Amino acid sequence: MAKPKIALYWCSSCGGCEESVIDLAEDLLTIAAIADIVFWPIAIDSKYKDVAAMNDGEITATLINGAIRMDEQEQMAKILRRKSKLLIAHGSCAHLGGVAGLANFYKAEDVLNRAYKEVPTVRNPQGILPKVKTIESGREVRLPFFHDTVKSLDQIVDIDYYIPGCPPTPELIKEAIMMVLEDGLPPRGSILAEKKALCDTCPRRDGRPDKLKIKAFKRLHETEWDPARCFLDQGIICLGPATRGGCSARCINANMPCRGCFGPIDNVRDQGAKSLSFLTSIIDSKDEEELKKIADSIPDPAGLFYRYSLASSMLRGRQ
Amino acid sequence: MNGFEPKIVGFLCNWCSYEGADSAGRARKEYPANLRVVRVLCSGRTDPQFIIEAFKEGADGVMILGCPLGDCHYQDGNFQTLRRYTVLKKVLAQFGIEEDRLRLDWVSANEGDKFVRIVWEMVNGIKKLGPLHQARVENGKT
Ligand code: SF4
Ligand code: SF4
Ligand code: FES
């Protein structure tokens, strides 16, 4: 019997998700022994035309990481959807829009101006911006079109499964691929991680008081924090209570609070609103003026609560 | 902004503010028809997701009305509302939704007059701000 085929592709991403596949290390060899990796631009020499030449549904599963910002990405997502039995959103950007999706707080024009004209490390005296079509020494050069907004993958194509995380842990990726190869997948649409919130499996959970009460939020540089005590209990914002578990609490174990990359737990439509709800519920004040001060101790609240999910949130970005 | 009639969604707590609105109605007091009322058991039940959804679905303004502080029938529900609201306003501002588009106030069961005044203030305030989705409508996006 022919080996099952696996493909991997990246869209608007930082490369971290690709790295998380490389971090499978020897396990990659195990996978390569039972499946053919037929397309993976970062690692193997296969071309778009090779994918285009495949039959529909020929690939057993494709993992796509990164959000969708450009039309080339959109087209590739659609082609890979057609050629694959299963399409898996790999990582926070594909799953929710991710950090790349924070650009939806700005207009496309502002993003391009910032990146190509304003940043102090760029010199662009002619103010050249990328264009879809440029004539260079008599030849036409084309670049993908830069869309108005960033989208999560399921806003473009149907997705069968999600592997959350920025990036996902190699363990989760391996588990997901093995589930595909061994026919052990949960119902379609599932998020392949824990069902419960991160706090549930957090190593700092035991000492955490039942009722948390916070008078002021402290930023990390403003305090010396106890590496064994629950972050929230120390007045440091941690989004563990409103974030899906499954990451092995890797930030917590590196003594950093959770920022929500695994997305919301089941049945939550808007991760930011939910995180805000929970965080404000532990504020210990009934006084309007004091509450305003405490609110001011959360810098960039929208950027905090929507760090990984802006593009897929209810409002999707700036109105 | 000629002829602009804002859509306003009001989350009114069952025990005080909804009663207050009802008493205004019984007394045949007039208030603008721009308000769509959603009855919630307690203002504290107004999940921020509801508010965001209202804006997403086309509201130009959202009001949350609850029992006066100290009088919530579930003890602390309205303090919970106040805490959320204080932070939510800042978040909405970052989304380009002006702070005045979200209002929190307290209306007790016998404050029909106050209810009417708040609705007028809200409607007039939003009329000055204009439609929330104007830009999107002009770009043909909605
Ligand atoms: S709030 Fe953060 S540190 Fe505290 S138990 Fe939850 S995940 Fe762990
Ligand atoms: S602790 Fe939070 S931010 Fe860190 S990996 Fe886990 S889910 Fe992501
Ligand atoms: S019951 Fe009215 S605010 Fe809680």
Query: Structural class of the secondary structure composition of chain B?
Result: alpha/beta
- Return the domain count of chain B: 1
| Major interchain interface with per-chain residue totals | A-B, 32 and 27 residues
Can you summarize the main beta sheet of chain A? Answer: 5 strands, parallel
**Secondary structure tally: strands of chain A:** 9
The CATH homologous superfamily of the largest domain in chain A is termed: NADH:ubiquinone oxidoreductase-like, 20kDa subunit
Record the strand order, biggest sheet of chain A.
2-1-3-5-9
The ligands bound in this entry are: iron/sulfur cluster, FE2/S2 (inorganic) cluster
Q: Record the strand order, biggest sheet of chain B.
A: 2-1-3-4
How is the topology of this model organized?
The complex is a heterodimer of chains A (319) and B (142).
Chain A: E1 5-10, H1 16-22, H2 26-34, E2 36-39, H3 48-52, E3 59-65, E4 68-70, H4 71-83, E5 84-90, H5 92-96, H6 108-118, E6 133-136, E7 139-142, E8 146-151, E9 161-163, H7 170-181, H8 250-253, H9 271-281, H10 288-296, H11 301-305
Parallel strand pairs in A: 1-2, 1-3, 3-5, 5-9
Antiparallel strand pairs in A: 4-8, 6-7
Chain B: E1 8-13, H1 17-26, E2 35-40, H2 48-56, E3 61-66, H3 77-94, E4 102-106, H4 112-129, H5 134-138
